[in-house]
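From the shared-data thread, chain only:
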Amino acid sequence: MHEPTSSQTRHPLRIAVLKCDSPIPSICAKYGDYGSIFTNLLQTAADSLEQGSAPFPPDFSSRDLDITAWEVAEAQSYPRLEDVDAVLITGSRHCAFDNDPWILRLVAFTKNILSDPRSRVRVIGVCFGHQIIARALGAPVTRSAIGWELAVVPVTLTARGKELFGKTELNMHQLHRDIVTALPDGVESLGSTSICRFHVMYAAQRLISVQGHPEFNEDIETDILHSRHLQGIFQDEVFEDGMKRVGTPHDGVLVAQAFLRFCFG
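Structure, as C-alpha cells:
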C-alpha cells in the first residue's frame, strides 16, 4: 500500500505504464504514445480530486505522481518491482489469449505480482490489460459471440461498484470484442454491460481493471473507428452504430481517480 505521509516527507506514487501497443499515427501525432496518454489522464485525475478527500494526503496533486512507461510488446522492457507502487497494463490490438512470447511474458509478470502474498505492488488493467489480469489468474478470455462493443456505453455497477466509483453507472469508451467469461478466484465483479458480463474486476489491495478505455476521448475513438472502417475491420452497420455514441460524455477521469484511490486504499 502507498502510505500517505506529510507533504514534507511523502514519496511520490510510482506508477509504471506497461505499453502493450502503439496508437495509430494520427493519434500519436496529436497525443503521443500510450505512455503519454495515460500520464495525461492520471495527472488530470489527480488535479481534479477534491482537496482533502480520503485516502489521499493533504494537497495531493499531479506533482505527487511519478509515472514511467515501459515497452513490453516489442522491447519487452519491464520495471523492477521494488521501484514501483503500481503497474498499469494498457490496451492493445492484440488478443490476450494468444501465445506470442511477449504476451506469455506479460502474463507471467502479472501472475508473479498477484500470486505473491508479500507483494505490495498494485495491478491496474485497461481492456487488453483487464484480460491479461484475468488470464494470469486462470480465468478464461475469449472472443464474444455477440461481436464488437464500441464507443461510449453505460456500465451497470454493483453495490460495491457504486460505492467505489460514487455513481450508479459509468459511461465508458469501448473498443473490444474479446471478453473475460468468468471471474478469477478471489476477485469481485463491479460492473457489466449487455455484451460484457465482467466489465470491472476488483480485489482490494491487489487489482482493479476495466474492459473499457478511460484514456480515450471522442477524438481518439473517432480516429480509430474511421481507421478500422476503412480497413474493413468494422462493417458499415458496426461503424455507424459506434459513431452515434462516440460523442457521449464519458467518465474517464472519474475512473482514473478510482485507480489512484485504489493505490492508496
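The longest strand covers residues 149-157.
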